Amino acid sequence: MHVKPCNYSNLTKILLSLCSKSKSFLQTKQTHAFAILHGLLPTDISISASLILRYSAFSSPSTCHLLFQQALPYSRTPFLWNTFIRALSIARVKHDGFQFHVYNTMLRTGIKPDVHTFPFLLKACADVFCFKKGVEIHGSVIKTGFGADVSVGNTLLLFYGNCGGLRETRKVFDEMRERDVVSWNTVLGVFSVNGFYLEALNFFSLMNFSSGMKPNMVTFVTLLPVCGRIGDKRLVAQIHGSVVKVGFNFEVSIGNALVDAYGKCWNSDDSKRVFDEMVDKNGVSWNAIITSLAYMGLNRDALDMFRLMMDVGLKPDSFTISSMIALLVELEFFNLAKEIHGFSLRFGIEHDVFISNTLIDMYAKSGHPSAASNVFHHMNVRRNVVSWNAMVANFAQNRLELAAIELLREMQAHGEVPDSITLTNVLPACGQVGFLRNGKEIHGRTIRLGSNHDLFVSNALTDMYAKCGYLNLAQNVFNNSVKDEISYNILIVGYSQTSEWTKSVVLFSEMGLIGLKHDVVSFMGVVSACANQAAFKQGKEIHGLAVRKHFHTHLFVANSLLDFYTTCGEIDTARKLFDQIQHKDVASWNTMILGYGMLGELNLAISFFEALKEAGIEYDSVSYIAILSACSHGGLLDEGRKYFEAMKAQKFKPTEMHYACMVDLLGRAGLLEEAEQLIKSLPITPDANIWGALLGACRIFGNVGLGCWAAENLFKLKPQHAGYYTVLSNMFAEAGKWDEANRVKEMMKLRGARKKPGCSWVHIQDQDRNVKMGKEVRGSRVSMDTLIWPYTVSKGSTPWHPSEAGKEQWRAGAHIDQKPVPEFDHFYYQPSLAGLPLGQYLMLKELLSAQF
DNA sequence: GCAGTCCAAG
């Protein structure tokens, strides 16, 4: 048998081509060692070049550099230089523009660039959006006379197209001496990726009908996504016709593009038909049909198609896996998504930036922020901007706002440039914690980035300002942007919690007038606006509208209505609505408990709380706030203590709000010392609500000493809050200590604390009357958000009253002239429970009022 | 040359 003499050079080349197919780092390293062992490396430049390219695929620019340096100087031909430049681009050496340094070194060494050098350099510029460098290289192209070369011209087109200079692209195209089909396709692609879809279509007809250039397959593959983007079914069908005419319809890539394009214009029948009729199918075809179905919202069909793909015995690739996980996250099938991830591990395709990104998203959306971080930190592929964005979203959506804001800094330190999606992700975090300064900074950035007119961005900005309590700034962004339903909802909800609540109602009706549809959030916002101000008439009208439009059955809207009727004192109506809600959630129950507590129906409050425990609904810490506040309203000391102990015995950790309730409960029962002890032994720093409760109690019982202590702490926390000064001053006055009383008033003036005039809307016998607050309001419906303390008189249970002296004064109405009504944001007066936990809302309010 | 990941109101 004749054995061919072994040619190690050829063998290495074969091995390298195998490495290219298997994409195995280990094999590449083994081949590298093999080449060194057989003395091929410093001399054989074709092997050096191949290895450099192989390593570039694993983002190892340093190894590429080493291989290049090891190559003997005389063997460094333009070919090797070009390969090195190209490898650096593939390895994505972005930050330092090392390619250009290499190019300059090449020129200095006396090597003349050849016809391949410029395309590689221009491609590098296009990839890293380096406009200045590209223009410079364009200059060298002209100087060296390579401008006439069609492939150089084509990369120039690509460069100018990528870096956004559409005018320049056209100019280069028009000035090209020679054009081939690639030139036409490149411009077509440039139009397509930059969103100039109509221009792309015009350009295609120019090519097809006027230039005499015959479109090739690439032309159609580039054109079809454009048709899909435009969403024109007839256009896709037309292109489909042309494709059939020139006989490209049996090509896999054309079939794939057709499946996708039909899907994008919501033509599921033709999308499926093209897929079924494809003679040749590859993985892309299956991915295309799966993503098309998912795009059209046919999630179940997409899932079935994935199963079919597995049944046929096709191996899913990273495209399949990432889109399947995204699909399952959308369906909230988190367990199934994890299973699919397991699949990908088995197939060894988890090292993909797309898969990692979807995994981050999956864990974030399923409420496992640390698992998401874990994926992020252990990614063994290069993170891209989407990875960072997903992480920012992970933090922002899982109540780790500070981490989200911090990550924005960190990503820049890692050389990643935030895009408009990053900013839309951080903005909610800024709003959530009331970081106005950071929010404004980001606003500035969006303007510099030119993305402030992006609907997502402008909505996020509006929301951020609204959440920070700057409705004027929110309105400003709103006025200067395009608006959709969400923009309106943001402002409706934003105004609903303020004194300008009527703007919510105005925006609500304006929405209808300009043809935008109200949705659940619009109704929720406007009802809660009415609830906050006890605007009974408007609220009832909107309730009527909600019924007509069938929104009243939606849980969130129903909860807002409950809140509305309870704050308006219409507890019986609230009860009727409550009974009609089919699937009540914990907020529905909490609202009722708080409502009954507020109106002094203590037995009902307690029986509702007990019923909630029985109902099999997971009650939360807000439920305890509601029942504790009911107990303190009714002076039910023992019950309150019992519930507080029961709560601690469970998994609930008492928050500031719970302690405030307890201080209030003890204080009103006259157990001021015990309240004092409780505050001193707190495991947390007492907040304004806790001190406020103590101050209120001291005021009732005329305990000036303790009251001073509470007030001092309040002054530290909220120096601008007029209410606290007033209460303290009045306490001194009642104790006959006029000097001290005046001193407190002086202090208040000095610190610039302003009092706000108070007034309350009382509805008596369906008549709206604006009355001065403080009158006996027995049996009427009262909005209590401006009262100093809740003054409720109930039938049926033991009424609780302020101290006799205080009561007398109250009855006489003497305080109306003497005492300004302080704005006192104690939690009783903010009974907005709809949808979200009260505690959180108040914490936010607290943060919002903090000075920056 | 085709396909996939991240974003706003509650």
TrEMBL record:
<feature type="repeat" description="PPR">
    <location>
        <begin position="149"/>
        <end position="183"/>
    </location>
</feature>
<feature type="repeat" description="PPR">
    <location>
        <begin position="484"/>
        <end position="518"/>
    </location>
</feature>
<feature type="repeat" description="PPR">
    <location>
        <begin position="384"/>
        <end position="418"/>
    </location>
</feature>
<dbReference type="Pfam" id="PF13041">
    <property type="entry name" value="PPR_2"/>
</dbReference>
<feature type="repeat" description="PPR">
    <location>
        <begin position="585"/>
        <end position="619"/>
    </location>
</feature>
<dbReference type="Pfam" id="PF01535">
    <property type="entry name" value="PPR"/>
</dbReference>
<feature type="repeat" description="PPR">
    <location>
        <begin position="620"/>
        <end position="654"/>
    </location>
</feature>
<dbReference type="InterPro" id="IPR011990">
    <property type="entry name" value="TPR-like_helical_dom_sf"/>
</dbReference>
<dbReference type="InterPro" id="IPR046960">
    <property type="entry name" value="PPR_At4g14850-like_plant"/>
</dbReference>
<dbReference type="Pfam" id="PF13812">
    <property type="entry name" value="PPR_3"/>
</dbReference>
<keyword id="KW-0677">Repeat</keyword>
<dbReference type="GO" id="GO:0009451">
    <property type="term" value="P:RNA modification"/>
</dbReference>
<dbReference type="InterPro" id="IPR046848">
    <property type="entry name" value="E_motif"/>
</dbReference>
<dbReference type="InterPro" id="IPR002885">
    <property type="entry name" value="PPR_rpt"/>
</dbReference>
<feature type="repeat" description="PPR">
    <location>
        <begin position="282"/>
        <end position="316"/>
    </location>
</feature>
<protein>
    <recommendedName>
        <fullName>Pentatricopeptide repeat-containing protein</fullName>
    </recommendedName>
</protein>
<dbReference type="Pfam" id="PF20431">
    <property type="entry name" value="E_motif"/>
</dbReference>
<dbReference type="GO" id="GO:0003723">
    <property type="term" value="F:RNA binding"/>
</dbReference>
